[in-house]
Each structure stands twice: as C-alpha cells, then as structure tokens.
Write a structure and sequence with these properties.
disordered C terminus, mainly alpha, 16 helices, globular
Amino acid sequence: MTYRYRVATLFLAGFFIDCINIFMSAIALPDISRQLHVSESSAAWVANSYILGLTLIIPLSTWIASHIGVRMTMMASMALFSVGALCTGLSTDFNGLIVFRLLQGAGGGLLIPVGQALTFSLFQKNERARISTLIMAVALIAPAISPAAGGVIVDHFSWRWVFLCNIPFSLLTAALAWWWINAEKTTAQRPDLVGLALVSLALAALLMGMSLYADATNPALPLRLVILGVIFAALYVRHYRRQPDAIVDLSVLSNPRMRFSVLVYYAVPGIFTGVNLLNIFFLQLVMGWGASETGLLMVLYATGSFGAMSVCGRLYNRVGAAKLFLTGLICHAVGIALLSLVGADYGLPVLVVAYLLMGIGGGIGANTAQTTAMIDFTGEHLSRASTVWNLNRQMSFSVGAALFTLLFNLLQQHTTATSAYHTTFLIAALLGLLPLLTLMSLNKQPESLCNQKEN
C-alpha cells in the first residue's frame, strides 16, 4: 500500500469510528433515558456533548499538529478517545456520562480535520471525487452496521458496552498511526483562542437553550440561553472581520459550491439525525419495538445510500451537481414524510420504503455535497475549508437532534405522542427541501481563491 493510501486509510478509520459513535449511541438512548431517569431531550446530550467536544478541538487540530506532528496528533486523538470511551461506559450518573462524552469527542475531533487535509493534499484535484466516494462509503457502512450491532448489545448486554466496544478499534488506529505516518510537522499560526471561545460558547448556549426549553416549566432561562448563543455568534462575526487569523475562516463560504453544500448537510444528514433519533424513540416507546429491530432499519438506509452513491460517483461529471442535489433532496424529503404514516395500520412496509428513500436521497445529497464543497480549494485554502467543513458536518448532526427533539416536545404539549411524532416528521420533510430555493447559486462562478481573506 502506498503512503497516500495509508494516510487515507487512517483518516477513514477515524471517520468510521466517529460515525459509529453517533449512530450506535443513538440506539441506546431510550435505555439510557430510562435507567438514568432523564427525558428524551436531555438524553440527546449524549450526542450533543460529543459534538461539542469535536467543535472545541477541531479548530485547534491544525495548530496542535504543527507542534507535535501529524503522527503524534493522530495517536493522541485515538488515545484520548479511548480514555473517554472507557470512562463513559463506566459512568454511574448522567452528568458524568456527559462530561466523558465531551472528552471522547475532543479525542475524535483531533484526527478528522488533520487526516482529511493531509489525505486531500496527497491526491490531485481530479482524484478527489474518488476519495469523497470512499468517505461516503464509510459514512454508509458505519450507519448500516452500528445501529444493528448496538441494538443487539443493548438487548442482550447493556448500553454501556455500546461505548466500551469502540476501544479496541481506536487503540488499533493509534498503533497504525505510529507505524504508518511519517514523523513530520506542518506549519500553522498560533490559534485564535478568543474566536474559539466565541464559537464554542455560541454553540453550547444554543444547544442548551433548545434542550432545556423542552422540559422547562419556565421558558425564561432557555430563551435567554438561545439569545445569548445568537449574541456570541454575532460577536464572532465581528471578531472575524477584525482578526486576520480568525479560527474559523468564514471567507470560504463566499464560494457558492461550499455555501450550498453546507446547507445541504443541514438538510440531509442533519435533519436525518434528528428524525432518526425521534423515530427510534417512537418505535421503541410507542410501537413496542426492540433495540435490535430498530437498529436493522439502518441497513435499509445504507442499502439505498450505497446504490445511490455508486451511481452518483459516475454521474457527477456527466450531469452536474445541481441535478444530483435536486434528486437527492426530493427523495430524502419524501422518505421522511412517509414516516408520518407509520402506525397501527401501516408499519413495516412503510418503514422499509421510507428508509430506502431516505438512504437514496441521503446518499446522493451527502456524497454530492462532500465532492462539491472543497472542489475549488487547494493548498492553505484547502486546510481552512476542511476545518469549516468538518465543523459544519458535526454541528449539523447536533443541531438536527436538538431542533427536532425540541419541536416534538413542544407539539406533545398540545396533542398525543403519536400525532406529535408524525407532525414533526412532516415539518422535517418540508425543511429538507429549503436548499432548493438557492439551487441556482451553483451556476455562479466561484470567487477567486486569491480574493478570499488571507490569514
């Protein structure tokens, strides 16, 4: 195996472990909610705290790699992840579990942007579609096997093993990083700590506000947190305009392909994460399904995604991104809308069609977005774009989970649980079509990279 494929393999291994932690942990949330006596919206923090840990560390990853080297960064990433997974699995209270998930996320977040930037730098521009296809293949395989495996673990052992079973894989990845990666250092400027603090506080306040609002008897505190999150976000924009070395380079969003791909990630993987989380609770708490049965639905999603991804890779250069985005978003939205029909009269057949359609739409949309987002970036701009893209990817998962659990809890106060689930699914389907309003932006010529903000 050549060096560049060894690097790609390690990056994909870290990405695989990251995806497993999102989808496998989701299947365990009903059990965690019952055993630790927390609500559905609070249980979502098992995922949110992991995402927050990723968000805190991703902007620092390039700077850390410039000081200790790429090899040591990748090793440290998986070692810290392993410690976090061990402590999470052994946690006896919910607050401790959340703290250790934050640590686990920080560990996972070190490897992904460093590995992606190094991998893309080793492949020519016309070869990146192949790497993007491999990335999406991992993004499909992990959701296919991890919920089903997690369901078996939860039903026959304990939700704790959902976290503990990751440790052998993360330790193996750390060992391979030591053997395979060259001991070289990159160059990076001192990180923008003020910017990092503002970004982290904005995300944390927004997520906490949405989570607390669902269970709060007095909405004043959650609303203040949401307002505070918006203020921190506005302060970061102001800080970015004055700081030449801002930690998140918003200038990459001036590229229409990157900007549209960011929206698509909220509309496809982001919305799906929230919808799938609610459907897990719906099937287990309302329909009486087991964790194993619920987890098997992701095999259908992955099957649809794999077929779509295989076709998408060949069609990208023939039909263009716009037509693929249109097809993917519509299929995904129709699949989500079908979930609103699931009940006593319509069960398994509707779920099969819904998850296949969501898989097809998700495979087309996410794969096309992954290829399109960074196709215009090279060199230092590629590293900046990689940081923004990975932050967006992680944030879309967390925002999707928080938004739709909030929406469900608000609807549940005025109707039955089943009706609240179904209405939430319909709203999610409509929101998933919103990027189509700006689809024509892909026809604009990308702004010259040399005109983007320089560090």
